[in-house]
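Worked example 3 (structure in, sequence out).
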């Protein structure tokens, strides 16, 4: 069994995620967007907009400044993307649609939906029929959107109306898809009106076959990973997928390897290669697919990362919305960011070096990246606060430069 050094595994992972190669020069178009999705496989959706929404930040890390309308063109107009619960709520290439059919069909009825059907018989089918007749529709556009009756569904969606609950249930079970989206607003539609025919009519693999395909996709996007890493990428659960991994390795579709410092054996995708050098310099969204598995991030980079979004302010160590800074092949700093759109300022309340990292090397690269991001967001200046051992060096380099 081949043994990989930790540095090799790290470079392999960065290459697999599209972070080892230089960002494109010149105008970024749909071809670049497709390449990102082909590599990462899933781009997480999250509503927090302190800097910019998570999907746009994930794309920025790989594409640099680009027209954010590209994502909506690919999604709403060209139907090249879909969304479903993968690692979490994610945008996915639409060719993944058949691979998630088994999950849709296996979804058990939510208790909240069962209670709703008892209270309002026929309401679920009435909502489906209205979308069929009028769609695509957002929950607020339903003729009878219902009330915000929280006791029905508790943690499934506190604050949802009954109409929103039903639309989400129909979406999760595959009877509806998200036909259009703009920001946070989902507009639901029939699959036949939103999914290209070649994928809609493709035979749906059995559960085991779909799991094998998703595990291979996960391996391609990770480069190398333990069984737990590969299963977590698309939240593939149960004992059968672990057996599928062993079978894929026995067939030669994956290579068994060990990685320096890792307790568990790993699997390498046959296309995964480690570049000799990585020259990345980019900020990573907290929901970036490189780092969304926190235990893997710690094993690969020696970087213990936890978001503090839901931590009370007095108990936060780093800040509310903290982005790791990738320089070369290391995560060298943590940067607390906020876009003050009214003042057209990218605020940096705190900047913190990792142990053993030299500020002289990091501050100029980070200043350049912050300037690039500020310009992309339509902001004019970067303001660096006082918190953190990198704040002073960064402030001296930044020196109030304007970005337009």
């Amino acid at each position: 069994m081949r043994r990989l050094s930790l540095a090799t595994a790290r470079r392999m992972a960065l290459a697999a995620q599209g972070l080892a190669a230089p960002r494109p020069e010149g105008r970024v178009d749909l071809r670049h967007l497709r390449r990102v999705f082909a590599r990462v496989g899933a781009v997480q959706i999250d509503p927090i907009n302190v800097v910019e929404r998570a999907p746009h930040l994930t794309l920025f890390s790989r594409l640099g400044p680009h027209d954010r309308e590209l994502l909506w063109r690919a999604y709403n107009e060209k139907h090249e993307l879909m969304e479903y619960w993968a690692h979490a709520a994610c945008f996915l290439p639409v060719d993944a649609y058949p691979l998630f059919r088994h999950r849709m069909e296996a979804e058990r009825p939510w208790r909240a939906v069962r209670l709703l059907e008892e209270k309002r018989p026929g309401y679920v089918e009435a909502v489906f029929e209205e979308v069929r007749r009028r769609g695509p529709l957002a929950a607020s556009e339903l003729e009878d959107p219902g009330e915000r009756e929280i006791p029905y569904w508790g943690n499934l969606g506190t604050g949802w109306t009954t109409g929103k609950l039903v639309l989400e249930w129909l979406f999760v079970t595959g009877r509806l898809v998200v036909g259009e989206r703009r920001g946070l607003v989902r507009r639901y539609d029939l699959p036949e009106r939103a999914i290209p025919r070649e994928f809609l009519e493709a035979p749906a693999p059995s559960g085991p076959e779909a799991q094998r395909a998703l595990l291979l996709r996960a391996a391609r996007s990770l480069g190398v990973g333990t069984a737990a890493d590969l299963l977590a990428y698309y939240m593939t659960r149960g004992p059968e997928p672990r057996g599928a991994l062993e079978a894929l390795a026995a067939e030669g579709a994956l290579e068994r390897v060990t990685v320096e410092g890792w307790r568990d054996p790993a699997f390498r995708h046959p296309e995964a290669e480690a570049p000799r050098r990585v020259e990345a310099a980019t900020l990573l969204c907290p929901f970036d697919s490189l780092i969304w598995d926190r235990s893997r991030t710690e094993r690969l980079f020696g970087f213990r990362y936890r978001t503090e979004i839901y931590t009370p302010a007095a108990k936060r160590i780093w800040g509310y919305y903290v982005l790791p800074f990738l320089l070369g092949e290391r995560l060298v700093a943590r940067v607390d960011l906020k876009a003050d759109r009214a003042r057209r300022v990218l605020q940096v309340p705190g900047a913190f070096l990792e142990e053993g990292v030299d500020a002289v090397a990091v501050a100029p690269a980070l200043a350049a990246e912050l300037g690039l991001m500020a310009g992309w967001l339509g902001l004019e200046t970067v303001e660096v606060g006082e918190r953190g051992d990198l704040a002073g060096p960064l402030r001296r380099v930044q020196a109030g430069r304007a970005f337009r």
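Notes: The first strand starts at residue 2 and ends at 4. Confidence is low (pLDDT under 50) at residues 150-157.
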